[in-house]
Model the fold of this input.
Amino acid sequence: MERVLIIGAAGQLGSELTQALANIYGGENTIATDINPKSLEKLDFCKTTVLDVMDKNAVRKLVKDENIKQIYHLAAVLSATGEKNPLFAWHLNMDSLLFILELAKEEKLDKIYWPSSIAVFGPNTPKVNTPQYCVKEPNTVYGISKQAGERWCEYYFQKFGVDVRSLRYPGLIGYKSLPGGGTTDYAVDIYHKAIAGEHFVSFLSEDSYLPMMYMPDAIKATLDLMHAPKEKVLIRSSYNLSAMSFSPKEIFESIKVHYPDFTISYQPDFRQAIADSWPDSIDDSKAREHWGWKHDFDLEKMTKDILKHLPSYSF
Ligand code: AKB
Done:
């Protein structure tokens, strides 16, 4: 079995992806790392170690010592947090990716996964059914780092044959972990407030549509892409990926069906401008054509599933 390293394993995507990878590769071949020691405790089904992705010597040593063949590099500063400290976000997001790509080249690693985002798009991008190829002028530091990162991924694939694969995730929604620092986070928080019987204040306006995806679909897409034969992965920047689009009002209404007393109000803050610069919906036909992507969850199905599991889920 190949040995797999996950960097940023305790984050929102990481914790669920790490479980899925351990199911496939075995806990002994899955090495989960994060900068936060406490957060690794819940990943006790695989090997864990504290790692700062900016500590290049430590990353290189771990890759060699553990005979790693694949890296899932998930560590990043997200859109909302990035705006508070742009230079730090740029430094962390870019330097870490470049280092991992360089390491993959030098150590001849088999595969690299690196997530991109709908944040690569900007205010001049077509908003509805945003195509794979179109104007991209992101205006957040997170988006700029993802756009530049995509170019580097394609560059390392074309020039050095590094087998790097990537998806432009929409907002990801799961109940097993909390997101941190994104513009789409409201769509996770709203479920927590509903089951706690509390009023929800949305930081986006009621009609702000954004592309979103339930975590099981995101995990499936990631594994499908990573396990697709090389010749089917025809886009080496990053694939558009989509499942559903909704507004705060629509997700509220889908929850209210199950919690009739639930209430919402709207107080848009600085994240509104970020949301306004992103697409409403995404055309992911290339992913569907090239490696057979198909989503399972729409808003109604996701809401039912979250409300079934979240009340008894312990963090
Ligand atoms: C964010 O909101 O920053 C992220 C993303 C869409 O990449 N969830």
About this structure: The first strand starts at residue 4 and ends at 7. Residues 4-170+213-240 form a domain with the Rossmann fold fold (CATH 3.40.50.720). The mean pLDDT is 97. The chain has two domains: 4-170+213-240, 173-212+244-281+297-312.
